[in-house]
Design a protein that fits this description.
With 399 residues, the protein is α/β, with parallel strands linked by helices. It has twelve helices and 16 strands. The strands form three sheets. The protein has an eight-stranded mixed beta sheet with strand order 8-10-11-7-12-13-14-15, covered by helices on one side. It has a six-stranded parallel beta sheet with strand order 3-2-1-4-5-6, sandwiched between helices.
Amino acid sequence: MGDCFATATASILRRTGAEYSDSRGAGLRAFGQQLQLNLLNGRAKVKTYRVAIVGLGRMGSTIDDEGHTTLPYSVASATTASSRLELVAGCDLVAEKRERFTDRWGVQAVYEDMRKMVEAERPDLVAVCTRAAGTDQREAPSANYRVDLHADLTVELANMGVSMLYVEKAMACSMRRADEIRAAIQKNNCALNTGVLRRFDNRYEPVRDVVLGGRLGEVKAAIHYAASSLLHGHIHSMDTLSWLLGDPAIDRVRGQFDDADYVIEDNHVASDPRATYQLRFAGGVDAWSLPAAHWEFEILGTDGGVRSFNNGTSSQLRLATEGGGWEEVPLAPVTPTSTVVSCLEDLVNSLEAGQMTRGHVEITHQITQACLGVAESHRQGGRWLKPAEVAPDLYVFHI
């Protein structure tokens, strides 16, 4: 059967190539001949891409040990689980982390200097898994501290010509640095995804399909349930709400820190604040964060509502009935897949197809701006503001 399939496939490709007398025909015929050889030899080839990791701590290498999921979670684990990716190198300033990385993953090419690693190993994809502000401390060491390591590394890697980047969230601590990242990604035609992983979680896809398929009627409201910090947590909640709604533009944002008396001085927030917010999306959909429950999301429309429970473990759809009220409608069960594998392979698929990634730089920039907009709104008494009104140098420290 394999021989018949190979012969038929090559025959079709030869006939297709014969229709052209120019270089297109030659290219198609060459492709057909190679495909025929690969199929006949039982080895249809799939290109793999070289992956290097900067920051060999939790998300880079060890978070699988914490028991959050049985699926591949660290970038190293996800890379080794993917048939499209090959783990070739790691980089960390701490020698002990480099040694443990080699012992765990069998990767001998480990470096202290990121630039030397990229120049020597020529990775196709680099994952930035460092702390955002370059320290494990929960508070900025001083009022002048404005380290933004994710931004520094992302800009440098894009300018070095790395074609695919995974960057841990948040991608920047200020909009000035977020603007620099966007410019570097666009200038170098680099594919970008960040670590807002519910966007890549297939358990949320039935919820999104219900919303975008119109089953709820006209969408009126979206709600996130959970208490959370701003850039370490609400970057996730805002991104997930945006994804479920189809990534519309954000027209307005307002919010407040839990510490309502906190005064922002010199454009500097010294620790990642717990906060609540309200967003107004294009089309008039309002979204809220409520500091209760365990990472749940709800979308409400004129004809029903859908809610994801307990950090994505289950979902419920309720639709309006002719007699009034809403009744539950079953949703098909979903077998979870690795969000990190999905995220990394989305970069590959995007590169090969010449399309935007699922978490492309424009949407990442928008969500970062909305998060920082909560801090700006807090500074201005909780008023509604346009995301573009965020002061470019307003810096929010986070790990």
